[in-house]
Specification:
Layout lengths: L2 H19 L1 H20 L9 H7 L7 H23 L1
Helix pairs in contact: 1-4
Length: 89
């Protein structure tokens, strides 16, 4: 058994599964945090860094979670492949 491939595959599975499963939660949390912070700034709170309000308005959170899910699927499939390969060796 090839332990290096096994543990690399295990890491791939452990990283890829949450990326694939919880992408929607992360997107919703980022949108909520941005809306909340913009509301705070509009009601008069101080900026934490230079031009924070402008950057929040100019760069909204990501709109699509497809890239995040594709990366998660890549890690998951690659991890499973490495685990199977390490067991067969």
């Amino acid at each position: 058994m090839d332990y290096q491939a096994f543990y690399s595959g295990l890491i791939g599975v452990l990283v890829g599964t949450p990326m694939l499963v919880s992408a929607t939660k992360k997107k919703d949390a980022a949108e909520r945090a941005q809306r909340s912070r913009l509301h705070e700034l509009k009601t008069g709170r101080d900026e934490r860094f230079f031009e924070e309000r402008r950057s929040l308005e100019a760069y909204p959170p990501f709109k699509s979670i497809l890239g995040w899910r594709v990366a998660g699927a890549f890690f998951l499939i690659g991890g499973i492949f490495l685990i199977v390969l390490s067991v067969l060796r």
